Amino acid sequence: MPTNMSLFSVNAILILSTDDRSRILTKYYSAPHAPPGSTTNYPGANPYPTVKEQKAFEKGLLEKTNKQTSDVILYDGRVVVFKMEGDVMLYVVGGGDENEIMLFGVILALRDALAILLKNSTDKRTLVENYDLVSLAIDEIIDDGIILETDPVIIASRVSKPPTQDITSVKNIDLSEQGLLNAWEFGKLKLAERMRQL
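Now predict its structure.
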């Protein structure tokens, strides 16, 4: 049984493009407070603090997993679970002694939530166009390396855009020149009435 029990189980979550090896979205996590008397290697510590180290790790990871048939590997002393979706790779990186099944549940939750939110179109272009939804979905799944939710339906419902029926009143606004002049005159009239009341 590991002696360093911690809620901080995810070191990084990465979405990388396989065709041009670019970063689409990467989040590295570190615990907000280090345990007393610890150095840099404690549960929840960010193993790659600089962007240069992160990019080197991501490049090596893409090369290692590009032709893999499995979904779990041990890379650079870290457990990495990954899924290929279209032209992107989804990664969840945990510590070397982390539970692979739990990390695999996170990657499946991310994949399924993105499929719900993006209507089964998980490719680089769609992810970039809907970057806000992707980022919010990741934030709903993981917060500072702590796994919060793994049910993709709940994640998608918390992240999805509001229904269009709530925006119907906005469509009836007249934005023509005459409509803006009418709004200006209405505002002037109401302001004059308020000033007279004082």
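The first strand starts at residue 12 and ends at 17.
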